[in-house]
Amino acid sequence: MQSGLLATDRAGCGECMRRSGEARSGGPSEPTRKHRVVRGSTFGEMLMQEKDQYRTDAQNAGNRLVASHVREDPFAAAFKATRMPMIVTDPNQPDNPIIFCNSAFARLTGYSDEELVGRNCRLLQGPKTDRDAVARIRQAVASGHDVSVDILNYRKDGSTFWNALFISPVRDEEGRIVYFFASQLDFTNVKSREAELAAARHQAEQEVAQRTADLHAALAAKTLLVHEVDHRVKNNLLTIASIVKLQSRLTHEEGRRRALMAVLNRVEALSTVQRKLFTLDDVSRFDVADFTRELVTDLISAIGRDDIQVTLDLQALHVPAAKATPLSLIVNELVGDAVRRGLSDGGGEIHVVVKRLNGHFLIRVEDTVEPTEPDAETAQFSGLLLEASAQQLGAKIKRSKHGRKTTVDVTLLVDQHQENEH
Amino acid sequence: MKVMIVEDEMLLAMELESEVEAAGHQVIGLAMSSEQANDLLAGSAPDFAFVDIHLMDGPTGVEVGRPLAEERIPFVFVSGNIKRLPEDFAGALGAIEKPYTMNGMKNALSYISAIVAGNEDVVPPTSLVLAGDAHPQAARRPA
């Protein structure tokens, strides 16, 4: 019995669709039903009634679709009962209205069955719905293709949900599209978790950026401070030297002048240390060989004699900054002593060695001069400075004399932890 | 030679003046700021100039150097931080790093006066860092 009913209904449905299509295109054979309804109505009422009519048509089409399946049809039952929100639309009616929706779809959207049937799916769209996603759906429907789109939809109450929408056309035996079937999947949870993750990541990145900026600022402040202090120390050393020089220029007494120049000489040794301290990449290290080279060449060329022969045997010898001052004073005293014992008065030879030897640091100054008697006070002053510096470093001083040749060796143990190999 | 000294620390400037004069040169003026330096230059052209980088009006020494280079007046920078100088040394002959020693300055001065006198056949002293040798570690010369 029901199968007979089904056949007639199907025919009726097809007729209805055709009619609706013709009504829209304004073809010659207008649907008689519509004429019946609009007769004697205002234009507004006419539109309303037309809409109502479409809705009724959609309702009828939906009913027929459902009725076309026997009550015990497991497919229809599954469609109605599934938790997956699903709808069917009829593209052969004006504006491709929903003709059927299951209760899962009504639950998802908050609209009732009656509110949904006869309406186009765009009622789910809202202000924040991506226009590109909508365009993709429209294009797929127009060209009769499947489409899978993630789209932000709106419920009846205005709240939103992320909809993983899948639409596919349903074709009859001749390949004509008779319905569109659409399934929905609310993935708002996934989306919001994604958003949470993105937000957390963004916050973490911001925090990292902030910390990095703080560190940069702290480093900049520290660098500025180091430069400022370095600048001050250098300026002060030069100022101290200038004060001593000023005093020595004003004095007419040779002994006082000599004493002032002796002080100036040591202040300048410290100045050279300070100047050389921050030239290496590792600012905490100091190259004794580099210091020695500059001290000797500056001193000898300032003497201005061309009968002084200088030979240097220097290996880069990096020591911690804390040892720079006593080591530099040692070199300064040894070289200065050689100069005072005859080099500046009669020329001669000076050989300076700075190198590592058998696990020791070796500083050797060897001079061959016509000896002159140095000023006793000057010699004592220099001797004390040498002794104090050597003592501070735990260094041994060995002096030997062969004719005109004097050799002074200063050796100290290498602390492997503090020495830099290159 | 006639020397101009641009230095904001007056005590240092005065001592440098003494050294320059002791070496037989004449100091035509001391300037403590870039403005004073420009005023000085407008009045008389020196044969040579010492220019500190940090002056009373800030790190304007390099600005003082540019017109000197344009006027082809040889000059050296005198500074505690020569790493801050532009790579081309702004046209300077070189730089003397503070705190210089009396010997270092003396040697630099005799080298400079030889160059200014047109004698190119002189060896630069260790105390004078030449343009291009700005990084002190690269400024090693054979002893």
Termini Cα gap of chain B? 29 Å
SS field, number of helical segments of chain B: 4
Shape of chain A: rod-shaped
Shape type of chain B: globular
Order of strands, main sheet of chain B, comes to 2-1-3-4-5-6
Strand content of chain A: 15-25%
Largest interface: A-B, 35 and 26 residues
Main sheet summary of chain B:
6 strands, mixed
Averaged pLDDT of chain B, please? 89
- Quaternary structure annotation: heterodimer
- Structural class given helices, strands, pairing of chain B? alpha/beta
- The share of residues in helices of chain A is 55-70%
Helix content of chain B: 25-40%
Strand order of the largest sheet of chain A: 2-1-5-4-3
Count up the helices of chain A.
Answer: 12
If you had to describe this structure to a student in words, what would you say it looks like?
The complex is a heterodimer of chains A (422) and B (143). Chain A is an alpha+beta fold. Chain A has 12 helices and 12 strands. In chain A, a hairpin with a 5-residue loop joins strand 3 and strand 4. In chain A, 27% of the residues are buried. Mean pLDDT of chain A is 84; it is low at 1-40. With 143 residues, chain B is an alpha/beta fold. Helix content of chain B is 34%, strand content 20%. Chain B has a 6-stranded mixed beta sheet with strand order 2-1-3-4-5-6, with helices on both faces. In chain B, strand 3, helix 3 and strand 4 (75-79) form a beta-alpha-beta unit. Chain B is globular. The model of chain B is unreliable at 135-143 (pLDDT under 50). Classes of the chains: A alpha+beta (422), B alpha/beta (143). The interface between A and B is medium-sized, with 35 and 26 residues.
